[in-house]
Amino acid sequence: MTFSVEIADPRTEPEPFGWSEFRRERGLPAVWDYTLLALEAWPARNPPLLVVVRLGSRIVAGLSVLVCRARLRPAYAPPPGRRDRAPVPRWAEVSQPWLSGFPGIVVADELDDGARAALLRTVERALARRLGPLLAGVLYRSVDERTARVLRGRARMVRQVDTVSVLPNDFRDADHWMDSLSKARRKSLRRALRTVDQHVTAGRLTVSVGPARDDLCGSEIAALVERHRAEHGISALDSRSALPGSYFHSFVRRTDVHTLTYHDGEGRLVALNTWLDHPHGLVKQHWAALSPADGGLRDLLFDSYLRAVRHVTSRGVPELSAGRSPHEVKRSLGFVARPVYGVAVPRPVLGR
Predict the structure, then answer these.
(1) Cα gap 156→140, rounded to integer Å
(2) Domain 170-317 classification at class level
(3) What span, in angstroms and rounded, lies between the C-alpha atoms of 169 and 163?
(4) What's the pTM?
(5) 3 state DSSP class of 11
(6) Which of 152, 181, 194, 277 is disulfide-compatible with 185, CB 3.0–4.6 A?
(7) Which of 233, 300, 234, 305 is nearest to 264 (CA)?
(8) What is the pLDDT of residues 120-165, one digit of tens each?
(9) Are residues 107 and 143 in contact, defined by beta-carbon separation less than 8 angstroms?
(10) What CATH code would you report for 3-162+340-349?
(11) 153 Cβ contact partners less than 8 Å away, ≥ 6 residues apart
């Protein structure tokens, strides 16, 4: 098989021909939309590229690739077409940064392991050409076991790095799910849900959920999400930049994005959770909440899990994916761990 690779910078280059159709056919979540990638890329320190792989004229794979620079560099990437004033090594991260536990690779089902290995090595060579001699290597984040296997090779480092929490939907309804939990967890969960209901009844809390929300302010969401990230600690290995309000303004207005919001009695947004439609299940994505010390309310996280379970059980969705940590809490809610792997490929063996 002979693969061709197209690498597009969403900030300045047009969407690759056929990408929207491929994304719809594969049922890819909203984060793969090219317009959203552009909104994400402009203010980023490590802006994403969209890599499209074709077999003949047909798209058979897509990759989200962050071009990463050290944290000591300026807060933003240089504008497209302009070189760094002091060039330093960089690396490429194949990841979908706002889809915890999911890889930044989507490949057509009909490609076997040999074809996938050849495809990814073709992509590595294309990245080396595009990013030049300062590219130190490629890091694949959160790939599944099959992709980790096809990426193995000399001097390639493959490790299980974490797990993603998944709840298979084997339940008639949310009550059936609740009954499957331990006695201690059922007791604490019901107590938490009663507390939330009391806030709603007393008018101290308004809860809304649904797709295509046009009643929300993108900048307010962006501020809450980034505040939540900062308060819970941003790892030195986290290559993500803050998402702007313009991103969330477009994001929550999409029909394939469901947004669960909690507003206090004064109309202030105190917590939110976004859910993404996916062919294999529902993805519980952004969660952000004010701490009780700053005017937030306890137990809203547990309420969000109940509402997500209600959604998947009422619609027959195959599973609910809730990302990575905190694993202990998710295990107590019936979630099972699915391994994810990291693969580091240094420059000398790229494409080999």
Answers:
(1) 11
(2) alpha beta
(3) 19
(4) 0.93
(5) coil
(6) 181
(7) 300
(8) 999 999 999 999 999 999 999 999 999 999 999 999 999 999 999 9
(9) no
(10) 3.40.630
(11) 349, 352
- Separation CA 284–CA 30 (nearest Å): 13
Residues shown for the chain: 352
Angle, alpha carbons 88-352-161 (nearest 5°) = 70
Contacts of 112 (CB under 8 A, 6+ apart): none
The one-letter amino acid code at 76 reads Y
8-state DSSP, 15:
P
Burial class for 62, CB neighbours closer than 10 Å (0-12, 13-18, 19+): buried
pLDDT, tens only, 217-226: 999 999 999 9
Domains 3-162+340-349 and 170-317 share a fold: yes
Q: Is the CB of residue 290 less than 8 Å from the CB of residue 44?
A: no
Helix and strand element counts for the chain (H, E): 10, 13
The residue with tokens 């790095």 is 161
Domain boundaries, the chain: 3-162+340-349, 170-317
Q: Which two tokens stand for residue 283?
A: 């993805």
Query: What HEC string does 192-221 produce?
Result: HHHHHHHHHHCCCEEEEEEECCCCCCHHHH
C-alpha to C-alpha distance for 257 and 70, rounded to whole angstroms = 32
For residue 34 the two structure tokens come to: 């090219």
CA–chain centroid gap for 133, Å, is 29
CA-based nearest residue to 9, from 38, 30, 36, 32: 38
Q: Show the tokens assigned to 257.
A: 């994005």
| C-alpha to C-alpha distances, 313 to 76, 170, 191, 284, nearest whole angstrom | 43, 8, 22, 14
